[in-house]
Amino acid sequence: MCFFWLLLGRDCTSFSTELSTAPSRYSWVRLELLGAPNLYYPGALSEDGLVGGYYRRSSTQAPFDLPVIWDATGRPFPLPVSGPYEAAVVNGFGPAGKPVGVLARGAPEPGIPGYWAPDGFVALPHTGSGGGAMTGNGEVVIGQTRAVPGGKRQPILWNDAVVRVVQGLEETDNVAQSISTHGVYVGVSIDTSNPSDYEYGAFIGRDGMAVRLNFPSFPETRAYEINDDGWFTGVWEPAFATQRGYVARYDLDTGESEIHDLGLFPGYGETIAAAINNDRTIVGGAQHLGGDFDRALIWWQGSLTPQDLNLFVDLPEATLIDAYRINNAGQILAEGRLNDGSGYAYYVLTPVP
Is 311 exposed, middle or buried (0-12, 13-18, 19+ CB in 10 A)? Predict the structure, then answer.
């Protein structure tokens, strides 16, 4: 299982409103099940095409959720954890391609942030009440922690064993989502002061500091992923509890910013923009208002026009309903609804040369 320890290894001025070329055709690999789980979720995609997540082996007997890596052929491999525990999840990949995530031993101990080494889970230090590691770049891991049980979550950076809590966001709950190779990170802020209507926002930062983003014409933005040119994507709320995708950038030195709406897919009331790569290709999904994902979408290399990802994949067994990760090789992690009505499956799509 040493395969997952190896991480193989443009300036952009504006987004266009029209496609310059059509998206690639994609081949596909279906991620296999590990036994017969109640639930499984592959939530992370590495730069070399590995997938990380978890599968639920039981709802009554611990461990409930097991951490899993899927290789390039779609085969699952559970990651080692020593001692009793209730759940463990791979959320992303950090320095040297190591899977990072969270381990829950069970009450009263909080969830522990950490990463997987060849011989098991290695805990990262936190500020008092647990947390979780989300993802990383070549040098640091980013996640969140709570100073006290039930307290607000704050983004945190780990550089080896050095812990650095991100400053500037103390008044709200904050969830780190993504970090670029240049160390710029983005995430979601949540103001919970009104229990009947949480107010969402986004933040961006670097070097242990962060600022809240404010786009007056795009209320309640959330930032999900940032690329190495500083473009990030997520959703905003044009109306109460209604989401639309956007793409934006913000200069931390000058405060200059720009933001673009990513439109709606015909026949749907909501569009989610989940991930962006260095080619400025964005992936996400369309859904009916208040419904589940129903159509996987792609915005190709700077386009602001969503297209149905299914048009570019010959996948007779399923309809792709959501695309939520893309790496710099152009590979996409997507969810499909099986056409025989038996449920759902997950796929890694690879551009065909």
Answer: exposed
The string of pLDDT tens digits covering residues 252-279 is 999 999 999 999 999 999 999 999 999 9
The pTM assigned to this predicted structure is: 0.92
